[in-house]
Specification:
By secondary structure, the chain is of the alpha/beta class. It folds into three domains: 1-47, no CATH class; 52-281, P-loop containing nucleotide triphosphate hydrolases (Rossmann fold); 295-346, no CATH class. The protein has helices spanning 8-20, 24-35, 41-47, 68-81, 105-108, 110-113, 136-146, 161-168, 184-187, 189-194, 208-223, 242-245, 264-281, 283-309, 312-320, 322-327, 332-342, 344-348, and strands spanning 56-61, 86-92, 118-124, 150-154, 171-176, 197-200, 253-255. Strands 3-2-4-1-5-6-7 form a seven-stranded parallel sheet, sandwiched between helices. It is globular, with a radius of gyration of 23 Å. The relative contact order is 0.11.
């Protein structure tokens, strides 16, 4: 008896039914389809788009070895104690041999990996700009639509990824270590701009107080005071937050020893305060609207690349222009204009029908 292959749309419909029923296996499969952009991924995203926006998205970034995974685990455990469901998306460098992630987050997060209220997905960067996988935000949308209350996005923390994670999250926690006490990390304008909360992890090491002072000094310079932000009494109390009452968020600079579970509560409190600030100021809606705008732009760019560079006729036409490009009778900009002008129908044709939720 011959076996019949189930059509993709039927299989996706069944998957979505299981997804809405809260089946963990359906979530894992949906995430895999979306992450790898397999057939049907657009239907999955379209089917639960109306449900997106309920989960808090918290990004964690910082240099390698700063203890981000340990800190992520500690935060997840506290959120679970509060009765919240937690999704974790850990973006790691891609192996040049297998294409998979180099680091095993399920091993590093073994304390929570078996918790049914926690879903962990390790994603490889696959060479995407800044180390943050292109599909990260889409995977977060799937977790959001499934009903996760908090989504923790941990990035590899090199290059442009700090800026990428800021665009993917509502709140961004920048994790630094005393080894970066030479202020190189502190002086990076991008990090200073995207951090909503700072923490100096491994604060039991020499240089932690100096690094904290350097960060507060840079925040003071950015605020125009030229002085470090005034810290209130207490070893792990954030700097004076009087500016928050005036509608301006002042990133607190905290200290943690994540391996010893020290300072984690203060991180939770700071993130909660920041989220309330976003809601009350209207910034939360603005950030999420910008995220939707950027998502549409990314989709258009991906579709254009795929449709152009997977079309045999287009590639053959481009190859035919190489002689004239080589001898200088054509310039690349002219060829690009010609290609765009003749590819209108290829770029504008519809290619899928969204599934109604």
């Amino acid at each position: 008896m011959s076996m019949t292959t189930v059509p993709t749309d039927t299989a996706i419909t069944r998957l979505l039914e299981q997804f809405r029923a809260g089946t963990p296996a359906a979530l894992a499969r949906a995430v895999s389809i979306v992450e790898n952009h397999r057939p049907g991924f657009e239907q999955i995203l379209a089917a639960q788009h109306a449900l997106v926006g309920r989960a808090r998205r918290i990004g964690l970034t910082g240099p390698p070895g700063a203890g981000k995974s340990t800190l992520t685990t500690r935060l997840a455990r506290i959120y679970r104690e509060q009765g919240l469901r937690v999704g974790i998306v850990a973006v790691d460098p891609t192996s040049p041999f297998t294409g998979g992630a180099l680091l095993g987050d399920r091993i590093r997060m073994e304390d929570i990996a078996l918790d049914p209220g926690v879903f962990i997905r390790s994603m490889a960067t696959r060479g995407s700009l800044g180390g943050l996988a292109t599909a990260t935000r889409e995977v977060c949308d799937v977790l959001d639509g499934f009903g996760m209350d908090v989504i923790l996005i941990e990035t590899v923390g090199v290059g442009q990824s700090e800026l990428d994670v800021a665009r993917a999250a509502d709140s961004t926690l920048v994790v630094l270590v005393p080894e970066s006490g030479d202020s190189i990390q502190t002086l990076k304008a991008g990090v200073m701009e995207i951090a909503d909360v700072f923490t100096v992890n491994k604060a039991d090491r020499p240089g932690a107080d100096r690094l904290r002072h350097d960060i507060e000094l840079m925040l003071g310079l950015r605020a125009g005071s030229g002085k470090p932000l005034r810290r209130r009494e207490g070893a792990n109390v954030p700097a004076d937050t009087s500016a928050e009452t005036a509608g301006t968020w002042v990133p607190p600079v905290l200290q943690t020893v994540a391996a010893e579970n020290q300072g984690i509560t203060q991180i939770i409190e700071a993130l909660d305060r920041h989220f309330r600030h976003l809601e009350q100021s209207g910034e939360l809606r603005l950030r999420r609207r910008m995220r939707l705008r950027e998502q549409v732009m990314e989709i258009v760019e991906q579709q254009i690349r795929q449709r152009l560079w997977r079309d045999g006729a287009t590639l053959a036409w481009l190859d035919a222009q190489l002689d004239r490009l080589e001898d200088g009778s054509l310039v690349p900009f002219t060829v690009a204009d010609m290609l765009r002008a003749q590819s209108g129908s290829l770029l504008t044709g519809a290619h899928y029908t969204p599934v109604t939720p």
